[in-house]
Specification:
elongated, mainly alpha, single chain, about 210 residues
C-alpha cells in the first residue's frame, strides 16, 4: 500500500476508518462550496466534526488531503465482466463518465489538476495516488482478454507496460476531455464508437 493511501497511518494512534471517510467527504464538500483557494484545513475539520490536529496527524497539508479525497472516489471504479473486451471497455468508460459527472469528483479533480501545474510534488502525488492505482483496470482487462484469446500475451514486460500506459492515457484522456473540456455527454453510443476506435488502434499496436 502506498504512503499516499489515506488508510496508511504515519504516526501515533491507530487510524479510524470512519473518521477518514468523514474527513475526505468533508474535503470534497468544501471544494464544491468554496473552491481550492478558499478551502482550509480548519473548514474541513469543522465539517467533519474533528479537531484540526486530527487532520494534520493524517495529512501534512491541503495538497495531500485533496488528492486522497479524489483518489478514494476513483477507487470505486470496477472493471465489469461483460463477456468480451469491447463490452468490458464500454462498461468501464460509462462508469468512469458517471463518476466524473458527480459534482464532487469534477470539482476536486479539476482543482488538483489546475494546482498541479504550479506544484511538481502535487503532480507526482496525483500520478502515484490516482493514475498508477487506476491502471489496475487496464491490467485486469488485458489479462481477462488474453484469457479469452482476444489479445495475444505480450512476452516483453517493457513493451507490455508501455502498451498498458498508452491504453490508460487514451481512455482517461478521451473521457476527461469529452466531459470536462468539451462539455459533451459520454453516452452509450459515444462509448461504443470510442471502443471500436480504441480496439482497432490497439490491434495495430499489437501487430507492430
Amino acid at each position: 500500500m502506498s504512503d499516499s493511501d489515506p488508510r496508511t497511518s504515519r504516526t501515533g494512534r491507530p487510524r479510524s476508518t470512519e473518521a477518514d471517510a468523514a474527513i475526505l467527504e468533508a474535503t470534497r464538500a468544501s471544494l464544491v462550496d468554496l473552491g481550492w483557494s478558499k478551502l482550509t484545513m480548519g473548514d474541513v475539520a469543522t465539517r467533519a466534526g474533528v479537531a484540526k490536529t486530527t487532520l494534520y496527524r493524517r495529512w501534512a497539508g491541503k495538497n495531500e488531503l485533496v488528492v486522497d479525497a479524489v483518489a478514494v472516489l476513483f477507487d470505486e471504479l470496477e472493471l465489469p465482466d461483460r463477456g468480451s473486451l469491447a463490452a468490458d471497455v464500454q462498461g468501464v468508460v460509462l462508469q468512469f463518465a458517471a463518476l466524473l459527472e458527480r459534482p464532487e469528483t469534477r470539482t476536486a479533480l479539476m482543482a488538483v489538476v489546475a494546482e498541479s501545474t504550479r506544484d511538481e510534488s502535487l503532480r507526482m502525488r496525483i500520478r502515484d495516488s490516482i493514475v498508477e492505482r487506476q491502471k489496475r483496470l487496464v491490467l485486469e482487462g488485458r489479462q481477462r482478454a488474453q484469457q479469452r484469446g482476444e489479445l495475444p500475451v505480450e512476452t516483453d514486460a517493457a513493451v507490455a507496460n508501455r502498451t498498458a500506459d498508452l491504453i490508460f492515457d487514451v481512455i482517461a484522456g478521451a473521457v476527461v476531455h469529452r466531459l470536462l473540456v468539451s462539455a459533451e455527454p459520454v453516452d452509450t453510443d459515444w462509448a461504443r464508437q470510442f471502443t471500436l476506435l480504441l480496439l482497432s488502434g490497439l490491434a495495430g499496436v499489437q501487430a507492430g
